[in-house]
Structure prediction request, 104 residues.
Amino acid sequence: MFVLMRCLHKPGADAERDALRPTHRDWNKSGGEGLVSVVTGSALWSEDGTAIGHWGILEADDLAKARAYIDGDPFTRSGIVTDIELTRMADGFAADRINPRITG
Prediction:
């Protein structure tokens, strides 16, 4: 299944987020040590250019594994993430349009 993930960050956490970014990226690359496959994702910015969070499209066996992935993210464990939204996507989601290696 594919899951849309949206995580908002606490204001004023720029220095802490910058320090944890390499570990956060390693977590993403590993899919949370195999919990999920990250199809795509990026940072979220306010209109004035302030970092406010991150989003992603995950491929997971179920919502519990997607949640475990987010819960294990260094940004979440450190308290930077304040709000998490997970939305199951349609079974017919065409992930191959984003990443040709994904066959769905």
About this structure: The longest strand covers residues 37-45. The first helix runs from residue 14 to 29. The mean pLDDT is 92. Residues 65 and 86 are 11 Å apart (CA to CA).
